[in-house]
Every structure is written in C-alpha cells, then in structure tokens.
UniProtKB/TrEMBL annotation:
Protein name: Phosphoesterase
Ranges of Polar residues composition bias in the record: 364-378
Region described as Disordered: spans on this chain: 364-384
Length: 501
C-alpha cells in the first residue's frame, strides 16, 4: 500500500477547539491538565543541546522524547461465536489513534507508537481498519512521528512491542509477522503457536527481513510472585531471543506503564503480585539483578519507559497520557529511521515525572570517548583511568503535575563484563555495585545543565557503567505501595561499555 503523508512536516500549534474537533474527546482534554511544550526538541539556553563532538555521534542529533507502548480503541475484543470472529472496538482501550497522537504532542513527545492487542484474526483488523486510521493521524499530527506496529502476542512469553520501520509496505510487513507468529491470531486457536521455538523462529524471520523491525519486552516481571521469581518471561528466553536476533530483540521496559494506578487505589504498573521499585521493574531496579546479568555478558540490552495508556486515571483507569509521566528519550534526528536506529543501538535514557529532560553520560580514556549505547576501547598495556562525565538538565518549568521536581542524588553504577553465563537463567551479576553517589554539593551548574565528573581508577578489565538519579532520599528504590507516583521519581541511563584490549 502506497502512501505519501510527510515524515518531516511541521506546523503551528493546534488550538484547544481544533484538538477537541479532531479527537472528539472534549471532556478528556479538559481533564488532561495544562498544555506543555516540546522542550526536548528545542535548543539549550547554553548552546549545549547537541551531542558532544568527542562522542562520535552526529552533531545534528538531539534528545527526543517518545513512547512505544500506547493503546487505542483498536485494543478491543472479539465475538468468537461468528466465523470469522467479529471485532469490537474500544473494549479495552478507548481513545482514537489521533487522540493519542495529539496528547503525545501535548506532553512533549516527538515520536510515538500505538501497540494494540492482538486476538483471533486480528492481523486483518490491523491491516484493514487500524492502519488507515494511522495514516489519517499522521496527516493530522505531523509533528509526532507515528510508528506502525502492535503489542505482539509473543509465543511462550508476555506481550512485546513489535515496531515496524517506516516504509511503503509497512502494513504488509506487520500483517505477515502477526498472521504467521502471533500466538493469538489463529482461529481456531493453535497451541503449536505458543512455544519457545516459535518465538525464536519469529525473531530469525524478523532478523532476515529487508526492513528489520524492533522487538522490546513489556512489563517483564508483572507476572512474577517475588523478588528474583519469574512468571511468563524467563531469563533464558531473553538470552535465546537476543542470541537469535541481537539487532532486533534489544531490550525490555525498565519502567512499565499503568503508573497512575495508586491514584485510583491499585498497584503501580499493574504489578499486583510483586511490586515495582520506584516505578521500575525489579529486573531493572535491583542493582546486580537481571539487567546487570545480561549486560555482564556483554549483551547490548536496553531499557525504555512507556505509558501503556488504555484509559486515563481521571476517567477511572490506571494510566497517564503518553508523555505525561514516563518518557523514553532517544538521541536522534527527527526521522523515523534515526529514531529506530537510536532505539536499536541504546542511545536512550528514561525518566519519570520529567525529573530530567536531558542526560548525557560519557566515558573517556586515552583520547577516546563513548556515550550511552557505545563502547570506548582502552589499552591493556597498563591499567588505565576512565573519566566519567554526567550531564543532566532539569525541566525549565513545571511537570504535568504542576511540580518542579528536584534531583536529590545521582548514582554511578559499574559492573564487569565477563562473557556468557553457563546458567541460561542466571539473573544476578555480583560484580555490579554503586561506586559513587553524588548530591547537590558534588555537581556544578553550567548554563541550564548540571555536570558531575568522576574518575574510575585502574580499569583493567571489560566493564560497563550506567547512571540513575532520584527525587527521593532512598539509597535503593523501595518496593512501591500506594504513594503518589509524583513523589517517587527516577531516571536511568543506558550503559556505556569499556573494552580493554
């Protein structure tokens, strides 16, 4: 299917009357709070918004906020008393695709993706009903790059983002993958679809496509019943998938959606069996946990943060709007291909509550440097110091809750890269530690940013470093209860690798 809606068109701000007319959600918009600007796409007051030249990154890339896990009215249900099943819109999520795009723009996102649930014969619903609505939404809200994809019913696992690259046959590509591999698409049901082998087969097929998609696991530990206990998603499944398609299967949600749950008396993230920690999945929040175990094998495995928006909390749901609370920032140009490249290669940081709007982590040694998702190589001839620079920027104004969040502490976390684990279900990296904690007295202001510098002495083995920060005084993120999510904010970088040769 050919289409010509522009990828890079820009336009003026829509009036509230236009927003209501286009979206058909007047009451929803009124409940959404004040409108905010797209701060991530603007230049820094101190002229430092572009990536540093020493990182090797293109200097026309800037941090762009987005969300790859959003639901529209096409997350519905099916009447299976008919053959084929009859699809009914709006049973699980209620907003039109264009409404999500408008609200994403409103809350500062420049890219987004609706990831609707599958079901029996849903591949035809996506192709024939949802995709034309996406094309209309792209025309109405060109300021937001709107990817095509779905919340994939991964064989033997929980849901995953399946993000399709922007190209003329994107609809056909998703139809092929969903109809062939989504475990819930066959009617009648086919138990042979729901196996680990089928998941690996899917990833191998995706890897060999001319336009390679991205696959990112959702709410990794939502079905877990304890710390270090796993439900639908097991550590060896992440390893097997990443081995099969390392440039397709690239990570999991560090901060899942449904973060507004406590505002309506339910669990943050929808984690009813075992809680999140500071709004983050245990696989990410536990220092030396599953994420660190994967990084310790040298895997390029990234984390993201999403809304999983279905129904806004002011209308009885458990969700924030896209970008209202959680943001995934990608260092990229405002192009579909470069946003995907940034996600694929880990040029990512995540934040909740707009605690920061920029986070640059750079490791430098012997005249070489690298940022998030990259690798700096140092000589083995002698133990070498690695200089770490952390730059972060708080928001220029208030966040969507009307607060001016303050960073109270930044942690530098370092772990060893020791190679593949003999235990495919290993979920710890005992070498990973918080090597330094920084408070306001430890950073200096430079224009609109704050800068921290630290030296890692005598680095003699392969390793990685990553950074997190918080608005709280918790040394480690605590298990979440019914506290307001706005009082418990965290940001995380993705890792920088250090290779010793």
């Amino acid at each position: 299917m050919q289409h010509r809606d522009s990828e890079d068109a820009t336009g003026g701000q829509l009036s509230r009357r236009q927003l209501v007319r286009y979206a058909g959600v007047g009451a929803t918009l009124a409940a959404a709070g004040p409108f905010v600007g797209v701060e991530a796409a603007h230049a820094d007051p101190d002229g430092q918004d572009r990536a540093t030249a020493g990182s090797g990154r293109a200097d026309n890339r800037i941090w762009r906020a987005g969300d790859h896990h959003i639901h529209s009215e096409y997350s519905g249900d099916f009447d299976t008393s008919t053959n084929p099943p009859t699809f009914r819109k709006g049973a699980d999520a209620v907003y039109p695709i264009v409404t999500n795009a408008i609200m994403a723009k409103n809350f500062g996102l420049t890219w987004a993706m609706c990831t609707d649930h599958g079901g029996p014969t849903h591949s035809k619903v996506n192709l024939e009903q949802a995709y034309p609505d996406l094309l209309r939404s792209r025309r109405l809200v060109p300021e937001v790059l709107q990817f095509w994809g779905m919340e994939f019913d991964a064989p033997a696992m929980d849901h995953h983002t399946l993000m399709i690259p922007r190209h003329a046959d994107e609809a056909k590509q998703l139809f092929e993958l969903e109809s062939r591999f989504a475990k819930r698409d066959p009617f009648p049901a086919d138990p042979g679809r729901d196996t680990e082998a089928k998941m690996v087969e899917f990833l191998k097929v995706a890897r060999n496509m001319p336009h390679r998609p991205l696959v990112i696991a959702h709410h990794t530990s939502r079905s877990a019943t304890g710390l270090g206990v796993y439900g639908q998603d097991l550590p060896h499944e992440f390893r097997n998938g990443n081995d099969a398609a390392p440039d397709v299967y690239v990570g999991f949600e560090g901060a899942p959606g449904h973060q507004a749950g406590p505002l309506n008396g339910s669990a943050r993230g929808g984690y009813g069996n075992h809680p999140t920690y500071g709004g983050y999945d245990q696989a990410t929040a536990r220092v030396g946990g599953l994420w660190d175990a994967l990084l310790g094998e040298g895997r390029r495995w990234w984390i993201t943060a999403t809304s999983d928006s279905h129904v806004h909390w002011t209308r009885g749901g458990t969700d924030f709007w896209p970008g209202e609370y959680s943001k995934t920032y990608v260092l990229a140009r405002q192009e579909y291909s470069d946003i995907m490249d940034g996600l694929r290669h880990g040029r990512i940081f995540v934040t909740t509550g707009d605690l920061v709007t920029r986070l640059d982590v750079t490791a430098s040694s012997q005249g070489r440097s690298a940022g998030s998702g990259e690798t700096v190589t140092v000589s083995r001839r002698e133990r070498t110091d690695v200089e770490v620079e952390i730059r972060f920027r708080p928001p220029a104004g208030t966040n969507a809750n009307g607060d001016r969040p303050q960073v109270r502490r930044v942690d530098l976390i370092v772990g060893r890269v020791t190679g593949p684990s003999a235990d495919r279900d290993a979920d710890t990296n005992p070498t990973t530690t918080v090597v330094a904690r920084f408070g306001p007295r430890d950073w200096r202001q430079q224009g609109a940013q704050y800068v921290i510098r630290h030296t890692l002495r005598d680095v003699g083995a392969d390793s990685y470093l990553r950074v997190r920060g918080t608005s709280t005084d918790e040394a480690e993120p605590l298990a979440d209860g019914l506290e307001s999510p706005w009082s418990d904010l965290w940001f995380y970088s993705n890792p920088v690798f250090v290779r010793v040769r």
